[in-house]
Amino acid sequence: xxxxxxxxxxxxxxxxxxxxIRKVLEDFGVPKIGTAxxxxxxxxxxxxxxxxxxxxxxxxxxxxxxxxxxxxxxANYEGPVCELQKMYFLPEARGRGLGxxxxxxxxxxxxxxxxxxxxxxxxxxxxxxxKLYKKYGFQYLDGPMGDTGHHACGVHMIxxx
Length: 161
Description:
Blueprint: E1 5-8, H1 14-27, H2 45-48, E2 55-61, E3 64-73, E4 81-89, H3 98-112, E5 117-122, H4 127-136, E6 139-140, E7 155-160
Parallel strand pairs: 4-5
Antiparallel strand pairs: 1-2, 2-3, 3-4, 5-7, 6-7
């Protein structure tokens, strides 16, 4: 297994995924409060994404998890809108087209679950991520939708799927 594989999260992946997300957030200097860093679900990702209309995938290369991403209904929002959630890659996974592959898988899953739009939040200085999202067709919003609890995230985007 030399090329990267995107697969559904498994129970044993929990500590690795939590470590990756925290490391990436720390590397980017993201606040620990008001972002995914503080999410209770971070240490129980497998269990969290067993909820209806939710899915989380890990990016694995040579038996090592190097990233992940998922979709779930947008919190505190009525309507067919999901959120692209916790999509973080270690440096060795970046710039290789793997983010596009992850978004493809997440959005196909979202469509199969009946969602019509996909929302996301990110930090203003995460410019490479925004470039990927814009390339994919995500459009900027003037403010947040729903209430994810991620009040420190200043960039809000949406895509019709």
